[in-house]
Amino acid sequence: MLKNYLKIAFRNLFRNKGFSAINILGLSVGMASALLILFWMYNEVSYDRFHTKKDYLYEAWNRGTFDGKLQCWNSTPQVLGPALKAEYPEVADVARIYSRWFVTRNGDKKISIEAMITDPAFLSMFDFPLLQGNPANALQSVSSMIVTQKMAIRMFGTEDVLGKTISIDKDNFTITGVMKDLPPNTEFRFDYILPWQYLKKIGAADESWSFNNARTFVWLKPATNPALLAGKIKDITIRHSNRAEEHEVFLHPISLWHLYSNFENGQVVGGRIAIVRLFGVIAAFILLIACINFMNLSTARSEKRAKEVGIRKTAGANKGLLVGQFIGESILIATVAGAIALLAVYLVLPAFNTLTGKELHVPVAHPEFWGAALAFILFTGIVAGSYPAFYLSSFKPISVLKGTFKRTHSAFSPRKVLVVIQFSFAIVLIISTLIVVEQIRHAQNRDPGYDRGQVVYHWLTGDLGKNYAQIKRELLANSIATSVTKTASPLSSVVADTWGIEWQGKNPSEKIDFDIFTEDEGLVKTAGLQLIRGRDMDLTAFPSDSSAALLNETAAKIMRFKDPIGQTIRDNGKAYQVVGVVKDFVIRSPYDSQGPLIIEGAQSFFNVIHMKLHAGKPAAELMPAVEAIFRRYNPEYPFEYHFVDEDYALKFEDTRRIATLTGLFAGLTIFISCLGLFGLAAYMAENRVKEIGVRKVLGASVVSIAALLSGEFVALVLVSIVIAVPVAWYVMNLWLNDFEYRIGIQWWTFAASGVLAVVVSLLTVSYQAIRAALLDPVKSLRSE
């Protein structure tokens, strides 16, 4: 019997080549799209799930009320980790992480790269295996270091580097471990590790409970109740700081790090999980749309197999056997489509990785993958074939064999409902893509408050700080730059913020978080900031400007000075005199309003040199001259520069990827939907060929017949638009509410999406409609 069913299945497959091709193509595109999304989703949910101690690993976070809001942050005092281990027996161990950029050298090879400085316990807490070296003592010495395979090859050209020496700044380190390269699905990012005690050597160790510059990871003993421990540790900072710090400590589990990083009122409310769920819904709907195509085409051609069903039932076949036969046929088609889909995924995955910034791969060597792929194909085949199977098996043999079987025509037939579902979802995706693109464009067109053009920065490495005056003088004297300044961070980011700002008239109960930026002098000219009041810092004309400060508009409004110029403010005890107020400029997210910011003078720390290149020449012509000056005064370090406008563009990267992916899958959804529409139109034209012949004999024009045949499908698309518009409006309003600087949803977005859907559907069905209308009525009516 099985052999007979397979023979019939293959016979039907090849007998109706056109419809079989449409079914297979639609299913394969839908399955490939769903598989790509599932690979991406699996990568997202698998972050840091490979650690064997994952059920006992937590990160310490702070929670406190500032600006009237309960806020959470994961930078902690360096002393928190040792205190947790010493005071709470439930804590098995702790590992602190401090990140800092260094220049590593091996002979003439120099690389500027960020180091992860951590405690030895990190190696026993997390599963990052050493290929060479002993994790028990690899970080015991202050001059020891661990490198990844990638770092070893980059510095030495080989992975066999145990015992070799690397210079960092003025210190030499011995490689005591070679770590396997980090997997792509981890939150940790580093190329080499230095021991925690090195912080003392470079003067970066800190014993204060008020200074948060480290991340603290906690390993709990297996019998520990995390909720009970959380109640015990929450006041540890308050106690140790003698109430100077009024915030709690809580533990955030490793399972939530990647996907649940957004907090509201001190509680986790989501994060990347929202995007994962969104694309999960998209994958499900794309697969469903592909299955709907199969259902529609299978039921549309039901008359072709009605007699077969009638004969089988007369011969004794029950409904269950017929259902099994038809589902088996759909599984066969799904298997062919699945094989094509897997091949397509394998071929397009490199491009998809580039698009998403991931390192996904098809795990062909893992038996579990093939088991999951088989289950996926079976699931698709069953879903696609279930409705046609039950529909076909429900035919009454007497009606079929007597020739009285008739197709039902209804304004709300299941086939029409399924087409409406297809296009409703496709139109929602089109509208969503347009809104995301508009939101990105809106933020990109926002005035950042400074001039990004021709502004270059270089980190202060090696002797650049010592030789800064000479470098600045040469850059200006040779007309390479029009302005040069030192800052703590690049213009497009901020490295410090504080709640410790005091000023005359401040409400003692107010706790306001101020961003802190620094300059020596000339920032207004270098960055093109807009001065509203006062002046910029100028150490030549005003030597006291080393303790001067500029406020942005928001900070000036918060402080409520009648005249801020000349007022004194204090940053954790350090006094600064306000000399100017600048217009707010974007230093964090271009999608959010800028909070209060203070630009402090030269008694602060500096990490970066900013240069405003001469506007009369392209940057490409000026950079060799800049490089020559930097290399002359800093020969031991590489010349690594960055453009501020390129940094600013990176702020849009995540949103742009969402827009691209949404647009891609919207296009695929439209393609699959139109593929099904094309098949239905072909069947309709074939089924109504005699009606068309009669109409032509009676004088109907080609245009009127084409309009008649296309009208039904266009009407379904119009219904889809009516359904999709309110759904898209609601969903995208929820998404836009996450942005302070956002667009309003415009009517033209819905109109453009609707017109696009109608035009595409009309083009899809018009070919079949016109082809049918052009048929010679003599041929179609010959048998009448």
In short:
The protein is of the alpha+beta class and 784 residues long. It contains 24 helices and 25 strands. This is ABC3 transporter permease protein domain-containing protein.
Unreliable stretches covering 5 or more consecutive residues:
none
**How much helicity do the residues have?**
40-55%
Summed up, the helix count is 24
Mean pLDDT, to the nearest integer, reads 84
Describe the structure.
It is a single chain. Helix 2 (17-45) packs antiparallel against helix 9 (273-300) and helix 20 packs parallel to helix 23 (747-773). The strands form four sheets. Strands 16, 17, 18, 19, 20, 21, 22 and 23 form an eight-stranded mixed beta sheet that branches. Strand 7 (165-168) and strand 8 (171-179) form a beta hairpin. The protein is α+β, with helices and mostly antiparallel strands and 784 residues long.
Secondary-structure topology with pairs:
Blueprint lengths: L1 H14 L1 H29 L11 E10 L2 E5 L6 H8 L3 E16 L2 E10 L3 H4 L4 E3 L11 E5 H8 L8 E4 L2 E9 L12 E4 L2 H4 L13 E6 L5 H8 L2 H5 L7 E6 L8 E3 L2 E4 L2 H28 L1 H13 L4 H38 L10 H27 L3 H6 L11 H31 L10 E5 L8 H10 L3 E7 L8 E3 L2 E3 L10 E5 L4 H5 L3 E4 L13 E5 H7 L8 E4 L2 E9 L14 E4 L7 E6 L5 H15 L7 E3 H7 L2 H35 L1 H9 L4 H35 L10 H27 L3 H4 L4
Parallel strand pairs: 4-9, 6-8, 18-23, 20-22
Antiparallel strand pairs: 1-2, 1-10, 1-11, 3-4, 3-7, 3-10, 5-8, 6-9, 7-8, 12-13, 14-24, 14-25, 15-24, 16-18, 17-21, 19-22, 20-23, 21-22
Helix pairs in contact: 1-11, 2-9, 2-11, 2-20, 9-12, 9-14, 9-20, 11-12, 14-20, 14-22, 14-23, 15-18, 20-23, 22-23
